[in-house]
Design brief:
This protein has 18 helices and 18 strands. By secondary structure, it is α/β, with parallel strands linked by helices. α16 packs across α17.
Length: 492
């Protein structure tokens, strides 16, 4: 056990002693003020009346750590000199006292292992408070949350993945901590088997909305893991947004009262973990487990666009997470539809150098596209994959890359941005392209529809990838936008 000796007990010293009394080990206080000694004894602190600057008195006292802590700068210097003269090897920490002279500061630094200078300490604390971007960002988030007069609707992107789900539940907890009612919501479905297991095992409460639903019950809207209403969600495009927390690089300026958009990190879960840490909040087990899984999924176990912040967030979350749940989430059964989609992606693959594209046709589970794109990326000599299919009058596209200088997010925007919505990261991106009139074809014309979609998407993507070194403008011309209908007519 560590023994501690406190010489002098001014206002700062008393505060220190109150804290030290709860620490393991012993504390002995020496002070020449009898009233102060009596007060400490009533607080069950071992205190001795005597002169803390007397070397003879100090010679009989032993300690691993000595603290000099009266309010008088001259007395503290004298006590430090006395202690050093009889115990030269003890670890000595000295409070400089009120208004120490420059000479006193220099003498104390020569004597002590550590000197606590009140003026410098207060200044450093103020500067760290003012200059800490993370702390300021979190305080702004709290301020905006407190101003919500009613319920906050936290909307994840359509068909949310673990990063979006975890970010949503973390923001919900932070909102509730400041007294704001919140609910985590989404459009679409949670169909990916791992995502369903994730929600079920953590017993998460998420609210599913149908397109066109009445959202008037919410007094404010927050977006998590995406940044614009009406883009990858079913909110009206003119919905006022109060809060945005996202790690994806935006295609257009983001408009909201509070925006935390850090595209240099690998996951939105990392941003939410940072807010919890800045607040000094110990995350609940379900929140910590969710955020840790969100980081692992979006960084592909820290091998894809992982930053120092992602590793630091994981280190913060790990002691609070349930690793048994993580293991169970990562080993779910795979649906027959997913296996069929992956099989079609393998069977229909087309290669153009190291770039692979595959049309899987009609979809029942759009999450299977990402799994197929990941699987195909394991093929020898393949550096980029694009897997796509259609459902609900929309072509859904998922792309992956590795070991290449191509920015896949920008490439997807160049190829499909003018006929749909597209974007993402350098090695993981996606797109959605409305089918328009093509979506109204009869069921028996599905094969023709697959052929049209396959030709247009594959051709456009291959063309864009081939043209990248020249830095051309890859947006499609008006004739290409109309070619969906033209080619269908040709097929018939």
């Amino acid at each position: 056990m560590v023994s501690r000796l406190v010489l002098g007990c001014g206002s700062v010293g008393h505060a220190l002693v109150e804290e030290l009394a709860d620490w393991p080990g012993s504390v002995v206080v020496v002070d020449d003020n009898g009233g102060r000694v009596d007060t400490l004894r009533t607080e069950n602190v071992s205190a001795r009346q005597g002169d803390p600057t007397d070397p003879d008195l100090l010679a009989d006292l032993r300690a691993d750590l000595a603290l000099v802590a009266s309010d008088d700068a001259d007395r503290n210097l004298a006590a430090a000199k006395a202690l050093r003269s009889v115990h030269p090897d003890v670890h000595l920490v000295v409070y400089a006292g009120e208004s120490p002279s420059p000479e006193d500061r220099d003498d104390l630094r020569a004597l002590a292992d550590d000197v606590i200078d009140p003026g410098r300490t207060v200044a450093q604390h103020l500067l760290s408070t003012i200059q800490s971007e993370g702390a300021l960002r979190t305080r702004n988030l709290q301020r905006v949350l407190r101003r919500v007069d009613g319920k906050l609707g936290i909307f994840m992107h359509d068909n949310p993945d673990p990063d979006a789900i975890a970010g949503g539940i973390a923001l919900e907890r932070i909102a509730e901590a400041v007294g704001t009612e919140a609910e985590v919501c989404y459009f679409g479905a949670i169909s990916h088997q791992e995502n369903r297991a994730f929600v079920n095992l953590l017993d998460l409460e998420l609210r599913n909305f149908e397109p066109g639903a009445d959202l008037s019950e919410f007094d404010a809207i927050a977006l998590v893991d995406h940044s614009r209403p009406g883009v990858n969600d079913q909110l009206p495009e003119d919905t006022p947004i109060e809060i945005v927390v996202d790690h994806h690089p935006p295609k257009m300026p983001v408009e909201a009262t509070f925006v935390d958009l850090r595209s240099a990190v690998g996951a939105t879960s990392t941003l939410m973990a940072d807010h919890l840490q800045q607040l000094g909040v110990e995350p609940a087990e379900s929140v910590a487990t969710g955020l840790l899984y969100g980081i692992r999924v979006d960084t592909k176990d820290f091998t894809r666009e992982a930053s120092t912040a992602d590793f630091e967030a994981a280190a913060f979350l790990l002691p609070h997470a349930d690793t048994d749940v993580l293991e169970r989430v990562e080993s779910p059964s795979i649906s027959h539809d997913t296996i069929d989609t992956i099989a079609r992606a393998i069977r229909n693959r087309q290669l153009d150098g190291s770039v692979l594209a595959s049309c899987v046709g009609a979809l029942s589970d759009r999450d299977a596209l990402a799994q197929a794109a990941d699987r195909l990326l394991d093929l020898e000599d393949v550096t980029t994959t694009l897997v796509f299919g259609f459902m609900d009058q929309t072509v859904y596209v998922s792309a992956r890359a590795r070991g290449t200088d191509v920015d896949l997010g920008e490439t997807m925007r160049a190829a499909f941005g003018r006929i749909g919505s597209a974007g993402g990261h350098a090695d993981m991106a996606g797109a959605q392209i409305p089918l328009g009139l093509l979506g109204e074809v009869e069921e028996e014309a599905e094969e023709s529809l697959s052929n049209v979609v396959r030709d247009l998407v594959t051709e456009r993507f291959f063309e864009t990838m081939r043209s990248l070194p020249e830095g051309d403008d890859f947006g499609p011309d008006p004739e290409q936008i109309a070619s969906f209908d033209i080619k269908l007519a040709d097929e018939e």
